[in-house]
Amino acid sequence: MESLEPVQGRSRGRRARGRPLRVLAAAAGAAVLALGAAQPASAAPRVTLAVAAPTSGSTVHDTTELRFTGTNLKTVRVYQLARQVATATVDASGTSATAQVDSSALRDGLVLLRAVAWGRGSLLPRATTTLLVRVDNARADQHPAGYKLVYGDDFGGRTLDRDKWCTRYMYDGGTESAAEQAKIDPTCLGRDPVTGTTLGTLDSLGGNGTAPGQEAEVYRDVNKDGAAMHTVQDGYLSLHATATRLDQPYLRYESAMIRSKEEFAPTAAHPLYLTTRVRLPDVRGSWPAFWLAGGYGDGHVRPPWPPEIDILEAPYNNSGNGADVLWTAVQTYYDHAEFPNGAPQGPIQTTYADSDFDGNAYHADSSIRDRWIEVAAEWTPDSVCWFMDGKKLACKTYKWVANDGPQNTTPATILMNLAVGGPWAGADGVDDAKFPMTYDIDHVRVYRK
């Protein structure tokens, strides 16, 4: 499957003379990476390079991690033919390296990659190795048959696509000054139809910083040290969080979020399937999320709440929310006197639950942190089913309707954010020593049946 974003490859480097590249012999429609022996130059110090993972012939998709071992490594670059596709991160000892390759920029089928290593104190390549992989992006996100892609971002560029994404909530308020809020993209703003208040400026769900809130971060495009909080590299987006407000009593962290400008709602004839591939931070006190809430619609009402669908919530603490837990939920909030028969979004009933799904939480058989997972929801006007890596976790009945009725219900905006702390994720404190951290997003896609 081709990337939904343009990917600009650069041709860097040339194959060394007299060093033949192994010829790829495979049928069309498959992609394999063939491992070749490291070839050190004769000059000391000796440099070696070998592929540690994946194994030769492995099937890969989306952003794929390559791991190398070697000796005296300083720089390792990965090429497909003459085009550089990745630069590896080399550890301080010079004995291992890791590269992230955006396979969506490669054609499905057999692909031969070549890694070239430079040693410390050398300007010339000192070792090479090759790897054959089978690229298969066409079915990688495991969307159901009969659904067609209608929206997506594969983060194949160099910066966040601001034509698709905003970086504040759709509500008013926030901790930033009027001058700072004036820098927000005007196309991300709305207006309260009654009061005229500008919407789209809210930078935290943790309050205004004068008292404890449910979270302990503010969302920024650039933190107080000048670091970008949204970066795009190797075919994925990183939402960064930094411990750069520790002098504040409550909102002690700076972090990042995205909100889709396009809004979505299923119909009975055309349900939706929303999916994302993410890598969660392995940091106590972190709270990455992927969720839906009411957007601006046509502007005749403020964005309503509820409704809300939480496709992924991953608060990480030592109080029952460990590295193997993924939360899902549908939200209600109502006055029992006004709605004596229950929430307008209900009745909410669980119609399916995996054996490892307990209430609103799924317990995986191993950590879901610091590795890529695909998380999705199949959404109809009156139900939601959740999936992880193609496995159905649970289904519940739920109506996407505001408390004020269908006439005041707006379509959903997609939200992805990296919250920090608060009484849930931060129940056992926040591990400041592991900052900065990132919530990595390989793609976001919406399919319609």
Automatic annotation (TrEMBL):
Say which species the protein is native to: Asanoa ferruginea
Task: Keyword check for Cytoplasm, yes or no.
Answer: no
Name under which the protein is recorded: Glycosyl hydrolase family 16
What Pfam families does UniProt report for this protein, alphabetically?
A: Glyco_hydro_16
**What sequence ranges are listed for the domain GH16?**
153-449
Family that this chain belongs to: Belongs to the glycosyl hydrolase 16 family.
Q: Name one GO molecular function term.
A: hydrolase activity, hydrolyzing O-glycosyl compounds
Q: Tell me, what is an example of a GO biological process annotation in this record?
A: carbohydrate metabolic process
Top-level taxon in the UniProt lineage:
Bacteria
| Entry keywords, A to Z | Hydrolase, Signal
Q: Has UniProt tagged this entry with the keyword rRNA-binding?
A: no
Family matches, as InterPro entries: Beta-glucanase-like (IPR000757), ConA-like_dom_sf (IPR013320), Glycosyl_Hydrlase_16 (IPR050546)
Q: What is the lineage of its organism?
A: Bacteria, Bacillati, Actinomycetota, Actinomycetes, Micromonosporales
